[in-house]
Design brief:
By secondary structure, this protein is an alpha/beta fold. The strands form four sheets. A ten-stranded mixed β-sheet has the order 2-4-5-6-8-10-11-12-13-14, with no helix packed on it. Strands 1-3 form a two-stranded parallel ribbon. A two-stranded parallel ribbon has the order 7-9. β12, α5 and β13 form a beta-alpha-beta unit. The longest helix has about 40 residues.
């Protein structure tokens, strides 16, 4: 195995020092170091590289992030495809903008508090079977205002609602995960107002009905979804379709409400009136004779229903006969077969069937 040292950097670097330069002077001015795929398993002290801004160490055997504390001007760090299991010792890299950690053994995204990262790439972590990549809330909170690009692909993730705190995120790559629910994505997009690119290919949620339509409708900032551009015509069509659908729902709800009111009115009307059906066969349509309590009240002046029944039996009897005669006057004598039972027992005694 090979350890990354200042001597190795001085010998193997593509930039060669000038004749009049010392090694120390050369190391101080160097800005880029590329030792990818060199079997590097450890990082030694690089404190002399004061102006180092880009460090390529991908495709090596590094198991721990160490000795980068003094590389305070570092902006890009490439550590993908190593053996790193923990994100640590990066707190001093205040200028770090892009961090590449894909293809390692990291189970929790943590240890990035106080950094102003713009890009974080942690795709394809080699996790134990059944485990998924997790996010430390403190790290997410710290990156809320700075992070603009996040790659979390192929990490067995089934829920990304925690990412809603990343208010300035504009690109989210989360392909090959286990996302299931369109509703969760709708909630996320409602929060991420600056997201213009999202790739969720090969997630189960992509097979849900109206998946693409629903996400386009909920996000006005989204321009690319799963690698496919969202055309203005497509968005406008979906917006018109949704408006029409909503209008139909409102109309249906209003009609249902009116129908309920109508049914309630009819029910109250039938409760107020005692309906007695009388059948007249030759006419072809049933007639309804109404004997209401209101009629009895009117016949009895201001008397109560109870007093009208007890004190004025003659008036009740006359009212019954009058109602029946009024119905009979519309027909011939042979039309009446048999009136049904009337409301008041005393009226029943005076009803008879005319057969002449």
């Amino acid at each position: 195995m090979v350890r990354l040292t200042l001597d190795l950097i001085a010998k193997k670097s593509n930039l060669k020092p000038r004749k009049e330069e010392t090694t120390l002077q050369y190391l101080k001015k160097i800005t880029h170091i590329n030792f990818s795929a060199k079997n590097i398993d450890a990082i030694e002290d690089l404190s002399l590289c004061k102006n180092l801004s880009v460090l390529y160490l991908y495709d090596n055997c590094i198991s721990q992030i160490t000795n980068l504390n003094y590389a305070t001007n570092l902006t890009h760090l490439y550590l993908q495809n190593n053996r790193i299991s923990c994100i640590e010792n990066l707190g001093s890299l205040k200028k770090l903008e892009k961090l590449y950690l894909g293809g390692n053994y990291i189970a929790v995204i943590e240890g990035l508090e106080g950094l102003g990262l713009r890009e974080l790439h942690v795709e394809s972590q080699r996790l134990p079977l059944g485990e998924k990549l997790l996010f430390d809330p403190r790290t997410l909170h710290s990156l809320a205002k700075s992070l603009s690009i996040l790659n979390i692909s192929n990490n067995n993730i089934d829920d990304i609602r925690d990412l809603e705190i990343l208010e300035n995120l504009n690109q989210l790559i989360a392909v090959d995960n286990q996302l299931l629910h369109v509703k969760d994505l709708e909630c996320l997009l409602n929060k991420l107002m600056k997201l213009w690119k999202m790739d969720l290919n090969r997630n189960p949620v992509c097979l849900k009905p109206k998946y693409r339509d629903r996400l386009i409708l909920v996000s006005k900032s989204l321009e690319f979804l799963d690698g496919k551009e969202i055309k203005n015509m497509e968005r406008q069509f979906l917006m018109n379709w949704k408006a029409s659908k909503d209008a139909k729902k409102i109309s249906k709800k209003r009609n249902s409400k009116n129908e309920d009111i109508s049914n309630s009115y009819i029910s109250n009307f039938e409760t107020m009136h005692h309906i007695v059906p009388v059948y007249y066969p030759q006419v072809g349509k049933p007639k309804l004779v109404f004997f209401s309590d209101t009629q009895r009240y009117l016949a009895n002046g201001n008397a109560s229903p109870e007093s009208s029944q007890e004190d004025n039996p003659k008036i009740i009897e006359d009212m019954g006969n009058l109602s029946l005669k009024k119905s009979e006057s519309l027909l011939t004598k042979n039309d009446v077969r048999e009136p049904h039972l009337l409301h008041n027992s005393k009226v029943k005694e005076n009803v008879f069937v005319k057969n002449q």
